[in-house]
Structure prediction request, 312 residues.
Amino acid sequence: MTEESYAYLFGPVPSRRLGLSLGVDLVPSKTCSLDCVYCESGPTTKLTVKRSTLVPTDAVIAEIDRYFEKHEAPDAVTFSGAGEPTLHSDIGKIADHIKKRCPGVRVVLLTNGTLFDREDVRRDAARMDLVIASFDAADKGVFSTLNRPHPSLDPAAMADGLVAFREAFGGDLWIEVFVVPGVNDHDAEVGRIAEVVKRIGPDRVQVNTLDRPGAESWVTPADKETLETVTVALGAGEVIGAYRRRVETTGGEEDASSRILEMVRRRPCTAEDLRESLGIAGGLIEEALEELVASGRIQGERLARGMFYKPL
Prediction:
């Protein structure tokens, strides 16, 4: 572990939606209420809906303080990572601390939206400036195939929870719909999703599809025509586009290797993704990747956008 290594923070990462975003990962990988076939973090190893302090709250807050003592504030601090952030029962407390520590930073929650039928989850999420919630399926069968949920979950209850949250939440609420060809892209299901989205009344609707390797190899990206059709059906939607912003940092190959490992254990990345996110010179990135592959710590998987690296 180098001085700049963190157990619960990652990045800052150039986000396609949020600008320069510092990630906060509150759950052990891969703890989630869903086991989505498209998840870039891989299959869920602990499927649960029980909230608890999955990682130590005081340790997370200490890392946040240490980061802001040494670095300029990013555009956003985002609760995300390799699991569902709202499973951490102190997420509201941590959000309050971030706002107190750095008042100008936007606090963001990326969530699968499954637990919003619970009042305590809605109360914690209301402390955010922006909540981006997923809603990929309205039909139980599609929900089961696509999201492989905890047995207690139901898409109708999930929708009702998001409607209730929208009514009480004073910040921005975005809904993201992830399109998987052959599963949730047919007219009937898109229509059902559109009805739910209309009920929720979010500030923005975004359509997404596979960009990195998913949990299941059969999942493929939706084509441009399908994405445009779904976007129109959902109303004022948009297809998420690429974002690039260089972050300048320093460090040698050892530092590059440790920071690459921190990134790819949360999501597969190409060499270009790593260069842009970490701001490390291209030569050092390539050398570190070669060493990590040779030592058996990471492996590559080639997709349309290039070679993606992930833990072995």
Residues 57-70 form the longest helix (14 residues). Confidence is low (pLDDT under 50) at residues 241-253. DSSP finds ten helices and twelve strands in the chain. The domain at 253-311 is CATH 1.10.10.10 (Arc Repressor Mutant, subunit A).
